[in-house]
Specification:
Helix content is 52%, strand content 15%. By secondary structure, it is of the alpha+beta class. The radius of gyration is 21 Å and the shape is globular. Bound molecules: acetoacetyl-coenzyme A. Acetoacetyl-coenzyme A binds next to helix 4, helix 6 and helix 10. Acetoacetyl-coenzyme A is lined by residues 83, 87, 121, 123-124, 130-133, 156, 176, 230-231, 234-235, 237-238, 311, 360-362, 366, 369-370, 379, 381. Homotetramer. This is Cyclohex-1-ene-1-carbonyl-CoA dehydrogenase.
Length: 381
C-alpha cells in the first residue's frame, strides 16, 4: 500500500518525537512505574491525542492510516505511552464523536482532542471480561440522576485519567440491550479508584479498579441512548483493536531492529552471529511476520477510512499483530542470549510489554470468534 505525502509526514513527525522524547526515558519509567505525564502533554501539543477528531472539535482530522502509523512509532519507543494514546484516541474520542450530544462534544471532546486531559474506557469487571454483557455494575434511574454501583476492573489509566466512559446496566434483567454508557469525572461523589494492579509489563501505564458506591450521575452524562451502551462499546472496540494492532506492530518492529543490530555486532566462533544460517532464518521469519502485521493494520485502517464496517479486518489485524509481537519479541530475546534476559537490553522490556497484547481489548480467542462469525455469517459464541 502506497502512503500519501501527508501520511509520510505524520509518520516522520511521530517518529522524531518518539525516538527523541519517549525512547530515552522508557526503561526508567518502566522500572519506576512512572506515568508519562510530561510526554503526554507534548503529544497533546503535537496533535497526537485528537488525531481522528474533526478540527471543529479541536482535533487534527487525520485519517486512520496516519493514526496507525503514528501509533506504531510511539509504541516503537514506549508501549506504555502507546496504550494510553490508543484508548484515548480510538475508543474514547471515537465514542464521543459517534454517540456524544453537541453539548457533550463541546464539554468533553474538545479538551480531550487538545490533549488537555486523558480519557479511559471502563467495560470489564472482576467477573465479566470476555463476556461484558454479563456485567453486574448497575445504574438505577432516580429523577434526573442515575445511581451507579459496582466495580470495574483492568482499567488502563484508572488512577490517572480524568474522564471515563463507564458501561453499566440500566436494566439488569436485560442482556446486552440493558447496558448504557456514562461519562464519569473524578468530582462525582461515590466514585473512586480501587486497587492498582502489579503488572508484568507496560508498567508506566497504571491499571486499576474503579469503584462506584451510590455514585449519583446526572442523566445528561449518558453517552448515546439508554440501552445503547453495548453498541457504544463494541463499535469503540473496532477502532480500539486497530490501535492495539498498530501498537503491536511498532513493538514488533522495535524488537526486530534490536535483534538485527545485535546479531551483526555479537561475535561468537570468530564471526558475527548474523553469519549463521539458523539465525538468518529467524530474522527472515521475524521480518515476514512484522510485514504481514503491517499490511493487516494498514488494510483495517484503510477500510475504516472508507467508512466501511471493519470489525473483521480490525480483529484480523489485532489477532495477527499481537501474536506476532509475542513471537518476535521472544525471538529477539533469544537472539540476545543471556543478555536478552537482563535489563541491560530493551528486548527484556519489549518481551514483557508484548504479553498483554493478546489479552486486552479482546483476547486472541475473542478475535477469532469475531472473525469466524463474520466469515461464516452464522453468529456463534
Ligand atoms: N459494532 C456495532 N455493533 C456490534 C458490534 C460491532 N463491532 N459487535 C456486535 N454488535 C452488536 C450486535 O449487532 C448485536 O446487536 P443487536 O442486539 O441489535 O442484534 C449486539 O451488539 C450484541 O452482539 P453479540 O450478540 O455478537 O454480542 P455477544 O454478547 O455475543 O459478544 C463478543 C460478542 C465479540 C464476544 C464481545 O462480547 C466481545 O468483544 N468481547 C470481548 C470484550 C473486550 O474486548 N473487552 C476488552 C476490554 S477493553 C480494554 O481492554 C481496554 C483497555 O483498557 C486496554
Amino acid at each position: 500500500m502506497e502512503l500519501t505525502r501527508e501520511q509520510l509526514m505524520i509518520q516522520k513527525m511521530a517518529r522524531e518525537f518518539a525516538r527523541k522524547d519517549l525512547a530515552p526515558q522508557a526503561a526508567e519509567r518502566d522500572q519506576k512505574h512512572e506515568y508519562p505525564a510530561e510526554s503526554l502533554k507534548k503529544m497533546g501539543e503535537l496533535g497526537l491525542l485528537g488525531m481522528l477528531v474533526p478540527e471543529e472539535y479541536g482535533g487534527e482530522d487525520m485519517d486512520t492510516v496516519s493514526y496507525a502509523l503514528a501509533m506504531s512509532e510511539v509504541a516503537y519507543a514506549c508501549a506504555s505511552t502507546a496504550v494510553i494514546m490508543s484508548v484515548h484516541n480510538s475508543i474514547c474520542c471515537g465514542s464521543l464523536l459517534r454517540f456524544g450530544s453537541e453539548e457533550q462534544k463541546q464539554q468533553y471532546l474538545v479538551p480531550m482532542a487538545r490533549g488537555e486531559f486523558i480519557a479511559s474506557f471502563a467495560l470489564s469487571e472482576p467477573e465479566a471480561g470476555s463476556d461484558p454483557a454479563s456485567m453486574s455494575t448497575t445504574a438505577e434511574k432516580d429523577g434526573d440522576f442515575y445511581v451507579l454501583n459496582g466495580t470495574k476492573r483492568w482499567i488502563t489509566g484508572g488512577a490517572t485519567s480524568e474522564l471515563f466512559i463507564v458501561l453499566a446496566k440500566t436494566d439488569p434483567d436485560a442482556d446486552h440491550k440493558g447496558i448504557s454508557a456514562f461519562l464519569i469525572t473524578r468530582d462525582l461523589q461515590g466514585f473512586s479508584t480501587g486497587r492498582l494492579e502489579d503488572k508484568m509489563g507496560q508498567c508506566a501505564s497504571d491499571t486499576t479498579d474503579l469503584l462506584f458506591s451510590d455514585c449519583r450521575v446526572p442523566a445528561d452524562r449518558m453517552l448515546g441512548k439508554e440501552g445503547e451502551g453495548f453498541i457504544v462499546a463494541m463499535s469503540g472496540l473496532d477502532d480500539g483493536r486497530i490501535g492495539i494492532a498498530a501498537l503491536s506492530l511498532g513493538l514488533g518492529q522495535a524488537a526486530l531492529d534490536e535483534a538485527v543490530n545485535y546479531s551483526k555486532q555479537r561475535v561468537q566462533f570468530g564471526r558475527p552471529i548474523a553469519d549463521n544460517q539458523g539465525l538468518r532464518w529467524m530474522v527472515a521469519d521475524m521480518a515476514t511476520d512484522v510485514e504481514a502485521a503491517r499490511l493487516l493494520v494498514l488494510n483495517a485502517a484503510a477500510k475504516k477510512d472508507k467508512k466501511e464496517k471493519c470489525s473483521k479486518e480490525a480483529s484480523m489485524a489485532k489477532l495477527h499483530a499481537s501474536e506476532m509481537a509475542n513471537r518476535v519479541t521472544g525471538q529477539a530475546l533469544q537472539i540476545h542470549g543471556g543478555y536478552g534476559y537482563t535489563r541491560e537490553f530493551p528486548v527484556e522490556r519489549f518481551y514483557r510489554d508484548a504479553r498483554v497484547l493478546t489479552i486486552y481489548e479482546g483476547t486472541s480467542q475473542i478475535q477469532k470468534i469475531v472473525i469466524a462469525n463474520e466469515v461464516l455469517g452464522d453468529k456463534k459464541k
